[in-house]
Amino acid sequence: MLDDLTTAASSPTVWPAAYPQGYAVVDVETTGLARDDRIISAAVYRLDARGEVEDHWYTVVNPERDPGPVWIHGLTSDVLEGAPLFQDIAAEFAARLEGRVLVAHNAVFDWQMIAREYARARSEAPVKQRLCTIALSKELKLPLPNHKLESLAAHFGVVQRRAHHALDDARVLAEAFRPSLRVAAAGGVRLPLHECLPLTEWTDRPRSGQQAGPGGYRTAGWRPSRKRPACPYPNPGRYEPGGRLKQGMRVAFSGDTSVERELLEDRATEAGLHVAGSLSRLTSLLVTNDPDSGTSKVVKARQYGTPVVDEAAFGQLLGDVEAAPEG
């Protein structure tokens, strides 16, 4: 562990009162990176308020499909065949997360995978907030050559034994997070916490190019990006708060949504709106449930004065979109 490392800050005498009371450092390995990919292993290190390890837990999971890039994670169909299904380990996983901030490296990916698995199991993960260690290292201005886990580990002298094994990746991250947390606490740094919304609607829409594999499972592989038809209406300008959306308006999304992002984007497109992947001065509206976050879209919206609404308000606006003028 890192008690004697000179690079780690000693535990501050006065700990910031606003800091969380506990953390769950999580890593999941998956069959791929798409929305319909599945978790095949998961690990959780539970930490106390000051980042000290309390315990750890690991499980493999039967994804009920091809395991994907075995050359990365090393988990073959034979290994996973007798593993429990996600719904069988959901309660134990939830107990490990309960009342804690989920910590992960590129946390949005791990959270979205976890949220979808709980949605499939008709349940919810008891997670209110997440913390991304990439965002924290940026906040602390750590002198890293890049934002890979191995670089963060090397900075704090943590030895990685089995990269892409969920238990070892979670251990490495837990050991690197503790000194990061102490540095943040000593400097009174505000932790980059983000709200986690469980999915209330989701889809495992088949992707073009997928083939049925052994046992009827879909095979993993590169999936072409999903292209939306061009919006047929000109952009009428910015949304006026309190008014109606108009066909042709450019709408961008940021952060977690309770309805899966792809479904929200589909509904916006069907209503005649232009779904934009980025935010510019031409964007009519930003939809986010976390307007105080520091994401690039939220920051740009503030700079440009782009109107912002949350998911619930956007859902109501979608029910009464003004038609574009004819001709």
Strand order of the largest sheet: 3-2-1-4-5-6
SS strand fraction: 15-25%
By secondary-structure content and strand pairing, the structural class works out as alpha/beta
Query: Portion of residues in helices?
Result: 25-40%
Q: Find the count of extended strands (DSSP E, 2+ residues).
A: 10
Low-confidence stretches: 1-8, 207-225
Number of alpha- plus pi-helical segments: 10
What Rg do the Cα atoms give?
Answer: 22 Å
Description:
The chain is an alpha/beta fold and 327 residues long. It has helices at residues 70-73, 77-81, 86-97, 107-120, 133-139, 149-155, 166-186, 261-270, 296-304, 311-318; strands at 22-30, 39-48, 53-60, 101-104, 129-132, 193-195, 250-254, 274-275, 285-288, 308-309. The strands form 2 sheets. Strands 3-2-1-4-5-6 form a 6-stranded mixed beta sheet, sandwiched between helices. Strands 8-7-9-10 form a 4-stranded parallel beta sheet, sandwiched between helices. Helix 8 (261-270) links the parallel strand 7 and strand 8. Helix 6 (149-155) crosses helix 7. The chain starts with 21 loop residues before the first strand and ends in a 9-residue tail after the last helix.
